């Protein structure tokens, strides 16, 4: 059974960099079929895709966040990480890591972490 | 960027009734790139449907998806108490992945 677990500070000061890590257990982390993904959800609002990284290090970011986002991967520890720079209160949200998959010409997100709440405040 | 618009915003129904949820894309998308998720309070979303009409593993057959081009539908044939939740559609585009704003199915 694949499990994902987010970790990182729950409170970040405005203008600083938000940093989160996702640890993946179970399954095959280094498969070319998977896209290690970050998604956030603002309180009482919908879901916003942030970006993903493949095991080989290829990245794909939401154009609206691209200038501030970096996603990296460490295949030796089955972890991938999110950095979001110059944060404001608008970046306060529940952050999820998830596994995107590509199989038989279809895409889907099949496993999610439980989410970690990040608040931006001084 | 493809914008997904879900309707209605809220659906008020009773257990035993059927539900029809709509997801409309701002431009035509491949059916293979459309998924539906269910989210309950305090939980992460759960994959229900991928490729517009394929049920994910363990999903009951009362959930079905259909559609193509710009119009997609999630149907719940007979609502069970555990089905009252928020439902999101998602598309996997070449320039961005986007979600609809969600439809809340409430009792």
Task: Please give a structural write-up.
The complex is a heterodimer of chains A (122) and B (107). Chain A is an all-beta fold. Helices cover 0% and strands 57% of the residues of chain A. Chain A starts with a strand and ends with a strand. The relative contact order of chain A is 0.31. The termini of chain B are far apart. In chain B, strands 2, 4, 5, 6, 8, 9 and 10 form a seven-stranded mixed beta sheet that branches. With 107 residues, chain B is mainly beta. At the A-B interface, strand 5, strand 9 and strand 10 of A face strand 5, strand 8 and strand 9 of B.
Task: Give a brief outline of the structure.
By secondary structure, chain A is an all-beta fold.
The helix/strand class of chain B is mainly beta
Oligomer: heterodimer
Low-confidence segments of chain A, given as residue ranges, are none
Helix and strand composition category of chain A: mainly beta
Strand residue content of chain B? over 45%
* Count of individual beta strands of chain B: 10
User: What's the helical proportion of residues of chain B?
Assistant: under 10%
Indicate the overall shape of chain B: globular
Stretches of chain B where pLDDT falls below 50 for ≥5 residues?
none
Q: Count of helices of chain A?
A: 0
* Distance linking N and C termini of chain A: 39 Å
Main sheet overview of chain B: 7 strands, mixed
Let me know the average pLDDT of chain A: 93
């Amino acid at each position: 059974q694949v499990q994902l677990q987010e970790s990182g500070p729950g409170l970040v000061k405005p203008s600083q960099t938000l940093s989160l890590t996702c640890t993946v257990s179970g399954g095959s982390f280094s498969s070319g079929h998977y896209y290690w993904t970050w998604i956030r959800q603002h309180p009482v609002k919908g879901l916003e895709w942030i970006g993903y990284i493949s095991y080989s290090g290829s990245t794909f970011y939401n154009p609206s966040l691209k200038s501030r986002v970096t996603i990296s991967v460490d295949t030796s520890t089955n972890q991938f990480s999110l950095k979001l720079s110059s944060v404001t209160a608008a970046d306060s949200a529940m952050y999820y890591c998830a596994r995107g998959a590509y199989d038989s010409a279809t895409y889907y997100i099949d496993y999610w972490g439980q989410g970690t709440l990040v608040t931006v405040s001084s | 960027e493809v914008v997904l618009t879900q309707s209605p915003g809220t659906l008020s129904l009773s257990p035993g009734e059927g539900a029809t949820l709509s997801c409309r894309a701002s431009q035509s998308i491949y059916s293979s790139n459309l998924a539906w998720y269910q989210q309950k309070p305090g939980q992460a979303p759960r994959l229900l449907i991928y490729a517009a009409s394929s049920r994910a593993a363990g999903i009951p057959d009362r959930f079905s998806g259909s559609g193509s081009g710009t119009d997609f539908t999630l149907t719940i044939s007979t609502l069970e108490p555990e089905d009252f939740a928020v439902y999101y559609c998602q598309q996997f585009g070449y320039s961005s992945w986007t979600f609809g704003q969600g439809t809340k199915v409430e009792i």
